[in-house]
Amino acid sequence: MIPSRRGVLIGSGALLAAGRTSAQAPEDLALTGRFVQGGHAIGRTWPRALVFVDGESLTAASADGVFVVGFDRDAAGSVQIEARLGARSASRTLDIAPGRFPSTSVSGLPPSTVEPSDPELLARIQREIALKAEGFASRLDADHFRDGFDWPLEGFRVTSRWGAQRVLNGTPARPHYGIDLAAPHGTVVRAPAAGRVTLARPALHFEGGLVLIDHGQGLITACLHQSRLDVAVGQDLMRGDPIGRVGMTGRATGPHLCWRMKWRDRNLDPSLMVKT
Description:
By secondary structure, the protein is mainly beta. It is built from one helix and 23 strands.
């Protein structure tokens, strides 16, 4: 399993951010999470307060005052999180620890999944990009992420860690923004937390069978390469509900689930959300 690196800040408690302790925080803004590149912060503040990240208004707290902020793979070394409600405000500056991202090579992929050139295929890929963008644009008014996530599979092994620099068929590619979980073909894939399905497509060119789930405030998980999908767009899910089956559809060389997470336009490591 992935080793845990946890930073915790509750009420006026101390911030334990990847080995560094900071000063006390105001009780109006409490943060817990993994303060590392690819990680996240779960916040509690005034209900419906606006939340600013480095001065930009990016989200709002739920009716219970809970919110989430994500830190991308290339996040800067510090981030300021501020909550505002009317004349009230509270802010914290967090230290973001650097991640450790290996380099991995994958060979034997069909050339069309590495460097596609056929005009019809390129047009198809553009249509699928638009479909995915619509699914990722969801902003469900919920905070289902507040209690952490479960692994979407049982009996898996990690074959590629999140954030790895990819070399595909000998060609350098963008980092891998998923964690690959190898499991037998047909293994049941389950919702890692409650949420709403925003995309369910069985045969995308790169992702194969893909399901997107919004767990609240645009924190969306993606389950790729599935051989069968058992959910539909708009369906509300409970933690543990079956959503499909492990396969090797799309750009895959063996049966596995690629599990991804995104908040707004930021790619996150979903394993850092798993309850330990």
